[in-house]
Structures are given as structure tokens and as C-alpha cells.
Write a structure and sequence with these properties.
This protein has about 350 residues and is an alpha/beta fold. It is about 35% helix and about 15% strand. It is built from twelve helices and ten strands. β2, α5 (about 110-120) and β3 (about 125-130) form a beta-alpha-beta unit. α4 (about 80-90) runs parallel beside α5 and α6 (about 135-145) crosses α8. The longest helix has 20 residues, at about 15-35. The radius of gyration is 20 Å and the shape is globular. The N and C termini lie close together (about 10 Å). The relative contact order is 0.13.
């Protein structure tokens, strides 16, 4: 409850007349588009995810970074490109996630970019496996102005943790958590708020009570339980949880599985947010891991031109009429995530 209140206050402090006006125009154009069945876009994204890097030190089985399975180029976001994006969007942008694929702290300039975004008074968050939160990085994280730090901790014991977080070390995660909390106290800062995110899969679901106790012991601000996206779910998977509320999939009478999401012909994300990859490609959402629907590149042209382009409008129109036929939408489980 307290972290939600703090987040609301932090987010509200980032509001400006321009951002409020932009959000209203985006919301209105989304509902107008739904009503008439044809895309109309007014305004710029309210929120955005940007990818610091595709590199990762772990090898998680349902992650393109972990599997080293990208068909798109891999690399690290350049500060100059990030500054260009911020100059163009800072007046309208309210919420910025420094994460798509990869481990953000593997980009040496990551915290410098957070600091730049904080200077524009944008709400900032990131997700990390916490293996690089040594004393120096923990201090710099607090000093950067980051508002929320999501730490992936998918097990309360090393055996369970490494069953999904391949090559991971739970001790480093716990130590990194302590380091950030220590520096937050030393610097008398209220941020970043620390969220332990527990991705629920069958091998770790038995440790849900234990992770709750451990979170209290360490003094993190919140523990959140997230449902897992399974790429090949039709015939079942050893990762699909047995606890139904933590599963994105339902078992059918014939033993196969289907996604719980009805895939209605609408998606608020297509009007209010997007993802920018490390090399500047603008893609519709976080389900497009391989950037198969790149709408353009901000390294070559303005974001505004890409956002309102015919290719982006055609994509929104396709979604309004036949979302279930769009490949990246077929495993979309937006709205089926459990944050408890």
C-alpha cells in the first residue's frame, strides 16, 4: 500500500501542463479510434520502454537474451542516441522503463542515462537480475534519481533460483538488495523503491511463502508475483504453474493448453506507449522481442514522423480488426499479470 502511495506521489510530481494535455489527447484518440474502427492518433507516447542492451549474464530458458536467440543485431544503447530521444519526447513523456531485453547494468552508461532522464523529471524504472549491484553501482543507482528498481528473484533458495535463472547466484541478488537499501539510507533518499519480482513457474511456486518472509527480513518495499510467458505452451510445459492464478494459460479437455486472454480487437498500448531498441528501432510493444514490426529508426528520422507514419497506422488498424491474426499478439497476456 505504501509503495503504491509513494509511486502515485512520485508520478504526480512529474506531471506538467504539457504532459497532462498530451495524455488527454492520446486517451481521446484511442477511444475515438475504437468507436469508429479506424486508427487516429493524436499526441505522443505517455510511457515508453527503451533497451539499454541486449546482453545478459544469465541464460534463462524463456528469454531471447538468455537463449542468445535473437535474429536482430545485438549491442548497447549509445548515450548520444538516448539524448536525441529525450530532447524530442521529454515534454510529453511521463514514464520511462529502462528495460526490454538484456541486463541494463551491462551498459556502462546506463546509470548516466537514468540521470539524464531524471533531469527531465521523467519517472524512471528498470528491471535487473541484481548481479552487478556492488557498493559503487548501488550508490550510483540511488544518486541517479531512479524511481523504481525491480529485482528479479525467482527463488528463495539457490537450488530453486538457478533452476530458472541459469548461471545465476542468489547470494549476489540478496547482497545487491542490501547494498541499495544501505545506500538509500546513507543518502537519505526515498528512492528507488525496491520491488522483488518473483516470476512464478512450476519449479518455484512452492517457495512463494518463503519469498514473502525473506522480503520482510530484508526490508524491501514490495514483493510482486508475475505470471510467466511461455513461448511453446500448446502441448504444455514443465514451467506452467499448477496454481491457476499464476498461470497465463488454461488446460483444455484434450490436454492441450490455450492462452486465457481473449485477444479483443483493441490495445491501449498501441496509442500510449512503445519500445525503442538499443539501436533506435521503434516497435509496437514488448512482445515483439525480435523487432519484427519495426516502424522506423529514431537514429535516422524524427520519432514524431515514425509515430504517425502510415506503417504504424496500418498496424493499429490491423489490430482494431483482427488482433488474433497478428503474430506478436498471439501470445499476448497483457492484463493477465499478477502483482500481489
Amino acid at each position: 500500500m505504501l509503495i503504491n502511495l509513494h509511486d502515485s506521489i512520485s508520478l504526480a510530481s512529474k506531471l506538467t501542463p504539457k504532459r497532462i494535455s498530451n495524455a488527454w489527447r492520446v486517451w481521446r484518440s484511442y477511444h475515438y479510434s475504437k468507436k469508429r474502427g479506424k486508427s487516429s492518433i493524436v499526441g505522443l507516447p505517455i510511457s515508453m520502454a527503451i533497451e539499454p542492451t541486449t546482453a545478459c549474464n544469465l541464460r534463462c530458458p524463456e528469454c531471447p537474451s538468455g537463449l542468445r536467440s535473437f535474429t536482430r543485431p545485438t549491442g548497447k544503447l549509445d548515450v548520444g542516441l538516448f539524448e536525441k530521444i529525450m530532447r524530442e519526447l521529454s515534454d510529453s513523456l511521463l514514464y520511462l522503463t529502462f528495460y526490454f531485453q538484456g541486463e541494463p547494468y551491462l551498459n556502462p552508461q546506463f546509470l548516466h542515462m537514468v540521470n539524464i532522464a531524471s533531469g527531465y523529471k521523467v519517472y524512471t524504472t528498470t528491471s535487473t537480475n541484481a548481479h552487478f549491484l556492488d557498493e559503487e553501482n548501488a550508490r550510483k543507482t540511488v544518486e541517479s534519481g531512479l524511481n523504481r528498481l525491480i529485482i528479479s528473484i525467482d527463488g528463495a533458495s539457490q537450488e530453486t533460483y538457478e533452476s530458472y535463472r541459469k548461471e545465476g547466484d542468489l547470494t549476489k541478488v540478496l547482497e545487491g538488495t542490501k547494498n541499495v537499501l544501505k545506500w538509500r539510507k546513507k543518502l537519505k533518499s526515498k528512492s528507488p523503491k525496491i520491488v522483488w519480482q518473483f516470476l512464478v513457474v512450476k519449479p518455484n511456486e512452492h517457495e512463494i511463502p518463503k519469498i514473502k518472509r525473506l522480503a520482510k527480513e530484508y526490508g524491501v518495499d514490495k514483493v510482486a508475483f508475475k505470471t510467466a510467458q511461455i513461448y511453446d505452451y500448446h502441448n504444455g510445459s514443465e514451467l506452467i504453474p499448477t496454481i491457476d492464478k499464476y498461470s497465463r494459460y488454461r488446460r483444455n479437455g484434450d490436454g492441450t493448453y490455450s492462452i486465457k486472454n481473449q485477444l479483443d480487437n483493441k490495445c491501449w498500448k498501441m496509442w500510449q506507449s512503445c519500445v525503442i531498441t538499443w539501436d533506435g528501432q521503434v516497435i509496437p510493444c514488448c512482445f515483439d522481442k525480435d523487432a519484427s514490426h519495426s516502424m522506423g529508426n529514431v537514429a535516422d528520422e524524427s520519432f514524431n514522423k515514425i509515430w504517425s507514419s502510415s506503417s504504424y497506422q496500418n498496424f493499429r488498424n490491423a489490430l482494431l480488426h483482427s488482433r488474433s491474426e497478428i503474430e506478436i499478439c498471439k501470445n499476448c497476456t497483457e492484463g493477465l499479470k499478477v502483482w500481489a
